[in-house]
Design a protein that fits this description.
The complex is a heterotrimer of chains A (331), B (362) and C (264). Chain A contains twelve helices and four strands. Chain A has 331 residues and is mostly helical. Helices cover 40% and strands 24% of the residues of chain C. Chain C has eleven helices and ten strands. In chain C, helix 7 links the parallel strand 7 and strand 8. Chain C is globular. The chains are: A mainly alpha (331), B mainly alpha (362), C alpha/beta (264). Chains in contact: A-B, A-C, B-C.
C-alpha cells in the first residue's frame, strides 16, 4: 500500500509537468491543427535559461534568498521562451497557414532540430546539474513520502491550470480563442484578429513550458539539451490521450500519464516476475535461486513503453481520446 | 492495347536519355570513390533511404495516412536479417532467404498495428504510430534480459554481408582489370534493388489500387460511398509500406554489418517523413529527390562546414556535428517556406492520361 | 416502369442526441422510376440518404433492396449492392482528374490486386483498358468529355455535379441517389440535368432524387415523398402531392412556395 501511494505521489508530480506541457500542444492544435513538434524544445530552453540565470546569480549574488533567485530564473526563462515561441510562429508557421497540411509539420521538425542544436552550442553536450536550492524535506503521508518540492510542483501546476481555465472561460481573449478554435473564418468575420489569437496560444503555451522546464529540472536535478524531446513526446501523448484540442483533456491526460508511468515502473518488475513458474524449468529455477527469486521479463527500463501502450489502447476504444468530442463523419 | 505497342511509342530521345542516366549511374561509384570510399557508402545510404522514403510514400503520399513510426518496420527488417545471419544465434541463412522473411515479418507488424488503429482520424493515427515506433525501439533496447534476443543497446555485430555462393559483396575484388571495393559492389546491388522498388511503386500508383489509395487520401467518405473497402485498402497501404521498410532494413543490416537500436529512433522516422514531404508527397520522382537530397545534405555539410569556418574565421567556431544539424534544420524550414508543396510536387499526370485516351479511342 | 419494388423502407428511425431526425419513415421505390424526396430544410432528407447508404446506422427500422435486407451494411457494401450516391456539398476527389474520379467509381466492379498492379498481366491490362474506356464513355454521357484531364477542383460547379453523377454511375448502380443535383445550377444547366436524369432512367437505372428545385421535381419525378420534421407527411404523384394541404402547410411555414414554383 505504501509503494502504491508513493507511486501515485511520484506520478502526480511528473503528471503535473506533463499536463503543463500538454496544454501548450493542445492549445496550438485546437486553434490551428498543428502538431507543434518544437514545443518540447521550448521546455528544454526554459530549463536551460533558468539554470544559467540561477547559477549565475548564485555566483554573483549568493546572499539573495533562494526564492528570489529562482523567481528571477523563472522570469527570464519565461521571457526567452515566449520570445522564441512568438517568433517561431511568425517565421515558420504563419506563412504556411494555407499550405498543405504536412508542410508546417516539417517546419516544426526543422525548428525542433534548430533549437536543439542552438542549445547544444550554448550549453554544451554534458548533463548540467541543478543546484539544490530547495532541500527536499520529505513529509510522511500514510507511510509515503512527499517532498515539499513535489508539493510545490503539484500546487503550482494546479494554480497555473486554474488560471488558464479562468482566462479561457472568462476573459475576452479566452472567448476569442474558443471562437477561433471552433471556426477561424467565422471568428475572423466577427472581428477577431486571428493572428493575435494564434500568437496568444503560442505565448501562453511557451510560458507554461518554461515553468514546466524549471519544474522538471528541479525535480530530477539535471538538465540536458536533449531533455525536451522525450518530455515533449510524452506531453503530446498526454494531450492526445485526453482528447487533443481540449484543455481539460490535456490536464487529465497529463496527470493520468504520469500516474500510469509511475505505477507501471513500480510494479512491472513484480508483475512480470516469472519465478512463480520456476517449477517449469530447471534453468529458470536456477536463475531464480541466483537472483533472490526475482527474474522479471520486463524491468523498470520499460517505463517509457507504458505511456504508448496506454495511449494505443485508449485510442482503440475511444478514438477521440478520453474527453475529446466524438467527431461524427459528416456527409 | 498491349505493352509492346506502348513501348514502341516511346521516342528515340527518351531512350537516349535513359541510356545516359544508366551510364551516369554506372560510373557514379567510381566518381564518388575519387573523393573517398566514404562517399560511395553515402551513395549507398541514399539508396537505402530512397527505398524507405518510397515505402513511406505509399502510406503518407498515396493513402494520406500520417505515419510517424515508420522506422519501426525498418528496424524489424534490420533485426530479422541480423538475427538470422550473425553469430547472435549462430544462424547464417543466405540473404535471398532472409529478404522475403524480413519483408513478411515487417508486413505482419504493419497489419498488426494497422488493424486496430486505421479507423483513427489523421493526427491520432500519427501519434499512435509514433508510439508504436517508440515501443519497438524500447523493446530492441531491452530484450537482452532475462533472455538475450537483441543484445540490447550494444546492438548486433558481425552480421553476414551479402554472399552469393562464395562471392561476398563486402570485400574488394578485381573484374576485367577493374578493382571493385566492397561499397562499390554493394552500390550495384542496391541500385538494382532501388530500381525494382521504384518500378513497383510506379506500377502501384498507376493501378486500380493506387487510385483507391488516392481516393481515400482525397475524401474517405466519398471513397467509401463509391464502394471502396477503405479499411482493407488502407491496411494494404500500411502492409505494402511496411514491407518496403522491412526490405530496406534487411539491406541496411547487410550493408552495415552492425546494427543497434540507436539507428531506429523517432528522429529517423521524422527524417524519412521529411524526405517524403520535402521532396513532394505522392510524387515518386519528388520523393526520390527528397531522399537523396536529405541524405547528401548533412554529409556535404559535414565535410564543408569546418573548412568553411577555417576560411572565414581562421578557426572552428562551431563543431561540425552541431552546425551540420543546425543548417539541416534551417534548410528544412527554408525549403518548406519557399516550396510548401515540396521541391517536386505531383503534377497533373496529363501525358500519361492522354496516352490512356488514345488507347480508349483506339 | 415495372411494378417490381426495388427499395422499400420500413419504419426508419434516426435520432441525434435529443433530435429525432427521422421517425417511422416508410416508403418504397419501384424499379425504373424517378422518385423524389422533398421537404423543407432540416426535414431529414439528407439524414435519410445517410442512413440508406450506411453512413449512419438507423436506430430502428429496416431497408430491403432488390429482394434482400440492407441492414447494418457499411457504405462500401451498400455501394456494392448497387446503390450509388452523390453528395449535397459535392465530394469529388479534388486533386485527381475528372477521368480518374470516374475510374475510381469502377473500383467496386473490378478486381486487380497487388499482383496485377505490379506485373500487369493480361487480365489486369484488359481490365484497366475497360475501366478507362468506360470512364470516357460516362464522361461523354454526362457531357463533360472535354474536361477529362482537368482536375476535379478546376471544373465549373455544374460540371462538378455532373462528374459526381458520372462517378456514381461508374459503380453500375441499380439505384442512383442524388442529393440536390441542381443546387447552384442556372436554368440552362438544370434543363440539361433534367434530360440527363431522363436518359439515366431510360437506360435502366432507378433514381432517388432529393431536390429543392420544385420545377425540376414536379416535371421529372413519377412519385414524390414529402418529409417534414423527420416524418413522412405525404407520398404520391407529383400532381397529388402538391395539392396536399399538409404539404402546403409545411412549405408555407418554410421559405419555398410550392404553388409558384410548381406552376411550370
Amino acid at each position: 500500500m505504501e509503494t502504491f501511494l508513493q507511486q501515485i505521489i511520484n506520478g502526480l508530480t511528473l503528471g503535473s509537468v506533463y499536463a503543463l506541457v500538454a496544454l501548450g500542444y493542445t492549445m496550438v492544435y485546437g486553434i490551428i491543427g498543428l502538431i507543434n513538434f518544437a514545443h518540447g524544445e521550448v521546455v528544454m530552453i526554459g530549463a536551460m535559461v533558468a539554470l544559467s540565470v540561477i547559477t549565475g546569480l548564485l555566483g554573483s549574488h549568493a546572499s539573495l534568498p533562494a526564492v528570489v533567485i529562482i523567481l528571477a530564473g523563472l522570469f527570464v526563462a519565461i521571457l526567452v521562451c515566449v520570445a522564441i515561441a512568438y517568433s517561431m510562429e511568425k517565421i515558420a508557421y504563419r506563412p504556411l497557414r494555407s499550405a498543405p497540411r504536412l508542410a508546417p509539420l516539417i517546419t516544426a521538425i526543422g525548428m525542433s532540430i534548430v533549437l536543439q542544436n542552438v542549445a547544444l552550442m550554448v550549453w554544451g553536450r554534458n548533463y548540467r546539474t541543478f543546484p539544490t536550492l530547495i532541500t527536499p524535506t520529505p513529509h510522511i503521508i500514510f507511510g509515503a513520502a512527499m517532498t515539499d518540492l513535489q508539493m510545490l510542483i503539484v500546487v503550482l501546476a494546479a494554480l497555473l491550470m486554474g488560471g488558464l481555465v479562468l482566462i479561457v472561460q472568462r476573459t475576452r481573449l479566452g472567448i476569442a480563442m474558443r471562437a477561433t478554435a471552433q471556426n477561424p473564418q467565422v471568428a475572423g468575420l466577427m472581428g477577431i484578429d486571428i493572428n493575435v489569437i494564434i500568437s496568444a496560444a503560442f505565448v501562453i503555451g511557451a510560458a507554461l513550458a518554461a515553468v514546466a522546464g524549471l519544474m522538471v529540472m528541479a525535480y530530477y536535478g539535471i538538465a540536458h539539451y536533449y531533455m525536451g524531446f522525450l518530455l515533449g513526446l510524452k506531453a503530446f501523448t498526454a494531450a492526445v490521450l485526453g482528447g487533443i484540442g481540449n484543455l481539460a483533456g490535456a490536464m487529465l491526460g497529463g496527470l493520468l500519464l504520469g500516474i500510469i508511468e509511475a505505477l507501471g515502473a513500480g510494479y512491472i518488475g513484480d508483475v512480470s516476475n516469472v519465478c512463480g513458474l520456476s517449477s517449469l524449468s530447471d534453468a529458470l529455477q536456477q536463475k531464480c535461486a541466483d537472483n533472490d527469486g526475482q527474474v522479471s521479463l520486463f524491468g523498470s527500463n520499460y517505463q517509457d513503453v507504458f505511456a504508448f501502450f496506454v495511449l494505443i489502447l485508449v485510442l482503440i476504444f475511444r478514438p477521440s481520446g478520453l474527453l475529446g468530442e466524438r467527431v461524427a463523419d459528416r456527409a | 492495347m498491349s505493352l509492346a505497342a506502348r513501348r514502341s511509342g516511346i521516342p528515340v530521345h527518351v531512350w537516349a536519355g535513359v541510356a545516359l542516366v544508366a551510364i551516369a549511374l554506372g560510373v557514379l561509384p567510381f566518381v564518388a570513390a575519387l573523393a573517398g570510399q566514404a562517399w560511395v557508402r553515402i551513395l549507398n545510404f541514399a539508396m537505402i533511404y530512397t527505398m524507405l522514403a518510397l515505402g513511406l510514400n505509399i502510406v503518407v503520399g498515396f493513402a494520406g495516412l500520417l505515419d510517424l513510426g515508420y522506422i519501426a518496420f525498418y528496424a524489424v527488417g534490420a533485426y530479422t536479417y541480423a538475427l538470422l545471419a550473425s553469430p547472435q544465434f549462430g544462424i547464417h541463412l543466405p540473404f535471398w532467404v532472409i529478404l522475403p522473411i524480413g519483408a513478411s515479418i515487417a508486413c505482419l507488424f504493419g497489419v498488426l498495428l494497422g488493424t486496430p488503429t486505421l479507423k483513427l482520424r489523421g493526427d491520432y493515427l500519427a501519434i499512435v504510430t509514433l508510439g508504436f515506433g517508440e515501443i519497438i525501439r524500447i523493446f530492441l533496447n531491452n530484450l537482452n534480459a532475462p533472455l538475450n534476443f537483441t543484445n540490447g543497446p550494444q546492438g548486433i555485430n558481425l552480421i553476414d554481408p551479402f554472399r552469393i555462393g562464395g562471392f561476398s559483396l563486402a570485400s574488394t575484388e578485381t573484374f576485367f582489370g577493374i578493382s571493385f571495393s566492397g561499397p562499390q559492389k554493394y552500390y550495384y546491388m542496391l541500385l538494382l534493388l532501388t530500381i525494382a522498388v521504384i518500378f513497383v511503386n510506379l506500377r502501384l500508383q498507376n493501378s486500380r489500387l493506387g487510385r483507391a489509395w488516392e481516393a481515400i487520401r482525397e475524401d474517405e467518405i466519398a471513397a467509401k460511398a463509391m464502394g471502396i473497402n477503405t479499411r482493407n485498402v488502407k491496411l494494404l497501404a500500411f502492409a505494402m509500406g511496411a514491407s518496403f521498410g522491412g526490405i530496406a532494413g534487411a539491406v541496411f543490416s547487410a550493408t552495415q554489418q552492425f546494427i543497434s537500436p540507436e539507428s531506429f529512433g523517432l528522429f529517423e522516422s521524422i527524417i524519412v517523413l521529411a524526405m517524403v514531404v520535402l521532396g513532394g508527397m505522392g510524387n515518386i520522382p519528388g520523393v526520390i529527390l527528397g531522399a537523396v537530397l536529405l541524405t547528401l545534405l548533412p554529409e556535404v555539410l559535414r565535410y564543408t562546414m569546418e573548412p568553411l569556418q577555417m576560411a572565414l574565421f581562421g578557426r572552428v567556431v562551431i563543431d561540425a556535428e552541431t552546425i551540420r544539424l543546425l543548417v539541416f534544420g534551417v534548410a528544412l524550414v527554408a525549403i518548406m517556406l519557399f516550396r510548401p508543396a515540396g521541391l517536386w510536387p505531383s503534377a497533373v499526370r496529363k501525358r500519361e492520361l492522354e496516352v490512356a485516351k488514345e488507347e480508349a479511342a483506339a | 416502369m415495372s411494378e417490381h419494388t426495388l427499395l422499400s423502407a420500413e419504419h426508419i428511425d434516426k435520432r441525434f442526441g435529443g433530435v429525432q431526425a427521422l421517425s417511422e419513415v416508410s416508403f418504397s421505390i419501384r424499379d425504373g422510376e424517378i422518385y423524389g424526396l422533398i421537404g423543407p430544410n432540416g426535414a431529414g432528407k439528407t439524414s435519410l440518404f445517410n442512413v440508406l447508404t450506411g453512413i449512419y446506422i438507423p436506430d430502428g427500422g429496416s431497408f430491403t433492396f432488390d429482394g434482400a435486407p440492407l441492414n447494418r451494411l457499411k457504405p462500401n457494401e451498400v455501394a456494392e449492392r448497387g446503390i450509388a450516391r452523390t453528395f449535397q456539398n459535392i465530394r469529388l476527389f479534388q486533386n485527381l482528374s475528372a477521368l480518374e474520379n470516374v475510374m475510381i467509381g469502377r473500383h467496386v466492379r473490378t478486381h486487380a490486386g497487388v499482383f496485377g498492379a505490379i506485373f500487369r498481366d493480361r487480365t489486369t491490362l484488359a481490365e484497366e483498358a475497360a475501366i478507362t474506356s468506360r470512364a470516357y464513355q460516362l464522361l461523354d454521357y454526362v457531357g463533360i468529355a472535354t474536361r477529362a484531364n482537368d482536375l476535379a477542383k478546376h471544373l465549373a460547379y455544374g460540371d462538378q455535379r455532373r462528374l459526381e453523377i458520372a462517378r456514381a454511375l461508374a459503380t453500375d448502380p441499380k439505384l442512383l441517389a442524388l442529393d440536390e443535383p441542381a443546387a447552384g445550377m442556372n436554368a440552362t444547366e438544370t434543363r440539361a440535368l433534367k434530360g440527363l436524369l431522363e436518359d439515366i432512367r431510360r437506360d435502366g437505372t432507378t433514381i432517388l432524387l432529393i431536390e429543392h428545385d420544385m420545377k425540376l421535381v414536379m416535371s421529372v419525378c413519377d412519385r414524390v415523398l414529402v418529409l417534414d420534421y423527420g416524418r413522412k407527411i405525404a407520398e404520391g404523384t407529383a400532381a397529388a402531392v402538391q395539392k396536399d394541404p399538409k404539404v402546403i402547410a409545411a412549405y408555407l411555414g418554410g421559405e419555398v412556395s410550392l404553388h409558384v414554383k410548381a406552376a411550370g
